Prior knowledge:
This protein is an alpha+beta fold. Helix content is 32%, strand content 26%. The longest helix has 19 residues, at 62-80.
Amino acid sequence: MLYDYIVIGGGIVGLATARELLLRTPGAGVLLLEKEAALARHQTGHNSGVIHAGIYYAPGSFKAELCRRGAEATKAFCTDNQIPFEVCGKTLVATTEDECARMDALYSRALANNVPVERLDAAELKRREPNITGLGALFVASTGIVDYRAICEAMGAQIRAAGGTLVLGAQVSAVRERAEDVEVVASGTAYRGRKLVACAGLQSDRLARLAGLAISHRIIPFRGEYFRLPPARNAVVKSLIYPVPDPTLPFLGIHLTRMIDGSVTVGPNAVLGLAREGYPKLSVNLADMLDYAAFPGFWRTLTQHPGAAVKEMRNSLFTDGYLAECRKYCPDLTRADLLPYPAGIRAQAVLR
């Protein structure tokens, strides 16, 4: 069979792509290939479950526009498909004078991005969040929470209902582009399509090279390690509590996140992963390590942020350091409050 489109990747990007192709071209033959036995088993299913409002990105940038539009589309999709979500807001807390200065810049950026934001002084912060301490804060009311796996299951059902085909357990081993079609070999079966879209997250660079593309980047895995609070502590916050981020780093810092199931998670950090898909702590894949160790951009990234790299590794190995980051804004947390929770792995694209 010759499909009109083959999509590789059963995370939220691949599913949204396949769904949109069917909406734009009703009756098209759309095939989605996912190597795992279920949808959303990597980045989509290992994150904080936050619907971000779009305050972090440069005003006028494509990222800022897509984040804002994506938040609106996510909430609309959940409403239309009876998927639970909650708009609980996000509080970004400044605990030092330097963070206060960065908070001012972030406030201006939020306004420029047309994201409603409210300044809070220390007293108002304490009134709204009695367990949180800071010199000041920004409150972004439109931030929400959701279970992205539930969204993916709903998208998968819509793709099937529209005539699309989902094949699970299909790991791609070859991509051959020809004049008349593209052939994709997955788990021993060859599929043919007129067009191919790869939405492969942690394996996206490898798929590009598999297809013969000359790329100038590598995916570097960064583990995001989480804890969860005991159920008795789930009322510790009313909104999502974030630190004011360091704009020189691509991560948002350790935060307290209300989850849609009522629990509260702590995290994530951002520590170099030793395996692209190694979620248990101390997972090691030598092939993954050799791949990024041989890439010049990896070493340049480390040398640009040596202090942050050492700090993140130390906090990963020693829970007291991780706890200290949390206690900057939630001082009554104790080590006993940090219960195990699955990690995530971020696909960080690094240029040569």
